[in-house]
Design goal:
- There is one protein chain.
- The chain is α/β, with parallel strands linked by helices.
- It has one domain: Rossmann fold (3-Layer(aba) Sandwich), CATH 3.40.50.720.
- A seven-stranded parallel beta sheet has the order 3-2-1-4-5-6-11, with helices on both faces. A two-stranded parallel sheet has the order 7-10.
- Helix 7 packs across helix 11 and helix 8 packs across helix 9.
- It is globular.
- 42% of the residues are buried.
């Protein structure tokens, strides 16, 4: 099949592309800055808000994978709404048979954060325009994930944490390998529009995830949740302790107060793949993190007079 990956140079997209190529698909990557590649994929210019560029990117495409997200902007919800509307309209006009979308977990009936509401709104926009398979996921555990990086940096930098109440919120993380495999399977799925929850076998609190990461790194970690750290204060706390930018921290923290767990396991049964437990995902991600750190340390340092 001819598959377009919108957001193919991002964290999940750059891991998905080689899997799609290995499955024999012709892969086109939509990006604002196309480059020549030697892996068989083709990068093409595409701007979500530019219908003309979308028409060119979507020409002769069978399935489009939509991984676009603008979490680091204050007006991310409006940007994502406009982008999804433009993309869905052009995809339908171009004769795309299906869109595969990576969204967020959470029940519609809950008081969802602006971030999770935006993820759900994009899903509805795409589904209203053309057949869409939406995979709803929580934190992706893998090197390069912002949420995973926050967990690692907190464990590495704070052996004693006075934490917000959201550390007790149940969530369903998912391994990078699993979400990539599920997205690839969704590309080939013949089902009509539907949404599926995907995530690790057992829900965990953020506190349990932090403690698991600490144990795997051989670190001591003491956590004291307190009720006085509001989401707004929590975002400043994350910005102070970690490398994440303030707007991204604020958007993520707002979502951490929502319980986001898997309520059905239809998709893993449909594709015949069970997700790995968080402990296994953690070990894989920490291994990749160590490799990246070792490669960075091996890079020659420039001689700067001091």
């Amino acid at each position: 099949m001819n598959v377009l990956v919108a957001g193919g140079t991002g964290f999940v997209g750059r891991h998905l592309v080689p899997v799609l190529l290995a499955r024999g698909h012709d892969v086109r990557i939509m990006t604002r800055s196309p480059h020549d590649r030697d892996d068989g994929a083709v990068e093409v210019f595409g701007e979500i808000a530019d219908p003309l560029s979308l028409a060119g990117a979507l020409r002769d495409i069978d399935v489009a994978v939509y991984l676009v997200h603008t979490l680091d902007h204050t007006d991310f919800a409006e940007r994502d709404r406009v982008g999804a509307t433009s993309f869905a309209r052009q995809a339908a006009h171009s004769g795309v048979s299906k869109v595969v979308y990576l969204g967020g977990l959470g029940e519609d009936a809950d008081d969802l954060s602006e971030h999770l509401r935006s993820r759900r709104e994009v899903e509805h926009i795409l589904t209203a325009a053309l057949p869409t398979i939406a995979l709803r996921a929580g934190i992706v555990v893998g090197q390069g994930s912002v949420s995973w990086e926050i967990l690692c940096q907190l464990v590495e930098r704070l052996p004693v944490m006075v934490t917000p109440r959201w550390v007790q919120t149940p969530t369903a993380p998912i391994a990078l390998d699993d979400i990539v495999a599920y997205l690839a399977a969704a590309v080939e799925l013949t089902a009509a529009s539907d949404h599926f929850d995907v995530g690790a076998p057992d829900p965990m609190t953020y506190r349990e995830m932090l403690q698991t990461v600490a144990r795997e790194q051989g670190r001591s970690l003491h956590i004291l949740p307190v009720p006085v750290l509001s989401p707004a204060l929590s975002s400043y706390w994350l910005r102070l302790v970690t490398d994440v930018d303030l707007q991204t921290a604020r958007s993520l923290v707002d979502s951490m107060v929502n319980e986001v767990i898997v309520t059905d396991r239809r998709f893993e049964q449909l594709v015949g793949r069970e997700p790995m437990p968080f402990i296994e995902a953690t070990r894989l991600a920490l291994h990749e993190r160590a490799k990246v750190g070792a490669q960075a340390d091996a890079q020659p340092k420039s001689d700067v007079p001091g």
